[in-house]
Amino acid sequence: MIVAEKKPIEEIIESIKSYNKILIAGCNECVTVCEAGGKKEVAILASALRMYFMNQGRDVKIDEVTLERQCDHEYLEELRNNVDMYDAVVSLACGVGVQFMAEKYFNKPIYPGVNTCFLGAAEERGVWGERCQACGQCILGKTAGICPVSRCAKRVLNGPCGGSTKGSCEINKDIKCAWQLIIDRLKELNKMEDYEYLTPIKDWSTDRAGGPRKVVREDVRQ
Amino acid sequence: MRLRYPSNIKIIKLPCTGKVDVIHLLRSFEKGADGVYVLGCLEGACQFNNGNIRARKRVEQAQKILDSVGIGGERVKMYNLSSSEAPLFARIATEMTEKIMEMGPNPIKLRKKAA
Amino acid sequence: MSTKTPSKLEKILSAGHLAVTSEVGPPRGSDAEAIKKKAEILRNHVDAINITDNQTSVTRLCSLASCIHLKLMGIEPTLQMVVRDRNRIALQSDILGAASFDIHNILCLSGDHQSFGDQPKGQNVFDLDSMQLIQTARYMRDEGKFLGGEEIKRPPKMFVGAAANPFADPFEIRVPRLAKKIAAGVEFIQTQCIYNLDKFEEWMRLARDRGLHEKCYIMAGVTPFKNAGMANYMKTRVPGMDVPDEVVKRMKGVPKEKQAEEGIKICIETIQRLKECEGVRGFHIMAIEWEDKVPGIVEAAGLYPRPKVE
């Protein structure tokens, strides 16, 4: 999923304080699962903002809505009829949702309510870890199912670097060395000989380096 | 024991403090409560393992939010006691009331009245 | 092994002499005197001098310009290049730049993560990794082509090196990793500072079992301790460093004013013991901000005078 983190309330207040009618829009997908921008977080932020403005002696209307998804036209369309009632929208969706909303409601100011962090998984309750950087050329088949691009601080494709210490990364002992994980798993799979496979120079043009990416599927396109 | 405790406290009964959510705490203040405290079982004695631990974390979250919006985080607090500690129950009620009296009324309530 | 480049370091190694290299860290400013002074101290006692590339991610005068200063002094430099700060365009371009001054040695490294340095908020690059930089340097030299496949006019002639850490975790891949670097095309290796000699010899034995000592020149890295505090710091704070307790104890066991002397003694003893280790083809003496001690170490270790090669 896309993992996001709530922005500090102070930052959100700073961005919307000049408006009088504000819609807080959550998303029922990833940001709900990572507890940053679902219905619950919408309610909490809305309540906090209402209290803030009341305390300022201002009558600001704060409404709440949580869409099934903010990265799909059909769900965003649900706002079509009432978005004009608001001066601004705070979207608690990931960066994708915020932008999709801005594209769709072109004349409406849209503010992000979360910081979109990475593609990851819940490692345990309350702890999310990065697993993928969407480089566009998956090499997991060669690296025992552990991604050095997203999980090595130097994205070393032929690792580990000299900084791997007792299974930890040189930058922080709480970060596991991706290459230690790869080696551990290669051993488990009885494939240590794969370690000596020299990963060739990577084509980063399918990564961020190649500019904004697009997937076009003629077979499903209308 | 016929213990006395301040009469301005409204008790909301729950099966477990684990049921308390941040939004419940915030809504109370939005509606004008001057203070809210959550009384949970002793830590380690939760019937549902960690309901009271979760409640404490939610209270802490609410404190932060109330501080951020200028209402005052100290208006919400978590206490733990066992059901046999009636004198402590009364003491907490008095302590919390005194604390809130000292802080004065919820500023939102004042704004609402003025409006 | 016959030589493939005009590198003096390669010639010395190829002739079967024990090579000696050292290193100099550029200053945090644009005054080249600091480099020149250090290099002058080392001139007659080492075969080549590595210039570090923004080591520990602290911004410094660049490795390439420093190498040029050395070259102009008639001293052979080894250009250290980390893949942290430059993409494949800049790396290849800098290799050509170095080649244009007839700089003939390159050491391919990953580089410490930028979070250790003075620009922790900066972006990093890591377009290639250190093994792929080895491949790149070899490809440019041997094929005379850029990575894109186009021809290089006057290709670089560089003797290609890399670092190896016999002590980093996990130990079981330390030798396979060396094999991988050799497969990538590395020709000489300078190891991490050696304090745990038993472990190093074990690593060398495993490397010999695979015949790796005959496929590249392995130079043993040594760093003299200035005092017991440094020994302890290296032991506890530097990632991938293996300083045994008894070495720290030995440093602590002598009075403060004698610790520097003891550190140098340990360093000389290390060189003397490793001269006997089959597969060790030279020494890389990293005396951090202590360059003036290097000539003494080289002499005491019986590595002076340095051989002359054509």
Automatic annotation (TrEMBL), chain A:
Protein's recorded name: Methylene-tetrahydrofolate reductase C-terminal-like domain-containing protein
Organism: uncultured Desulfobacterium sp
Organism lineage string: Bacteria, Pseudomonadati, Thermodesulfobacteriota, Desulfobacteria, Desulfobacterales
PANTHER family in the cross-refs: 5,10-METHYLENETETRAHYDROFOLATE REDUCTASE (PTHR38755), METHYLENE-TETRAHYDROFOLATE REDUCTASE C-TERMINAL DOMAIN-CONTAINING PROTEIN (PTHR38755:SF1)
Chain ranges of the Methylene-tetrahydrofolate reductase C-terminal-like domain: 111-205
Organism superkingdom: Bacteria
InterPro entries membership: DUF5981
From TrEMBL, chain B:
Domain F420-non-reducing hydrogenase iron-sulfur subunit D, first and last residues per copy: 2-104
Alphabetized InterPro entries for the sequence: MvhD/FlpD
Keyword Iron: yes
Highest taxon above the source species: Bacteria
GO molecular function terms attached to this record: iron-sulfur cluster binding; metal ion binding; oxidoreductase activity
A Pfam family matched in the record: FlpD
Enzyme Commission (EC) number: 1.12.99.-
Keywords: Iron, Iron-sulfur, Metal-binding, Oxidoreductase
Keyword presence, Metal-binding: yes
Name under which the protein is recorded: F420-non-reducing hydrogenase vhu iron-sulfur subunit D
Record organism: uncultured Desulfobacterium sp
TrEMBL record, chain C:
A GO cellular-component term linked to this record: cytosol
One Gene Ontology MF term: methylenetetrahydrofolate reductase (NADH) activity
Gene Ontology BP terms: methionine biosynthetic process; tetrahydrofolate interconversion
Top-level taxon of origin: Bacteria
Swiss-Prot/TrEMBL cofactor(s): FAD
Keywords: FAD, Flavoprotein, Oxidoreductase
CDD domains noted in UniProt: MTHFR
Pathway: One-carbon metabolism; tetrahydrofolate interconversion; Amino-acid biosynthesis; L-methionine biosynthesis via de novo pathway
Family matches, as InterPro entries: FAD-linked_oxidoreductase-like, Mehydrof_redctse-like
Catalytic activity: (6S)-5-methyl-5,6,7,8-tetrahydrofolate + NAD(+) = (6R)-5,10-methylene-5,6,7,8-tetrahydrofolate + NADH + H(+)
Stretches assigned to coiled coil: none
Keyword Flavoprotein attached: yes
Pfam families in UniProt: MTHFR (PF02219)
Family that this chain belongs to: Belongs to the methylenetetrahydrofolate reductase family.
Protein name: Methylenetetrahydrofolate reductase
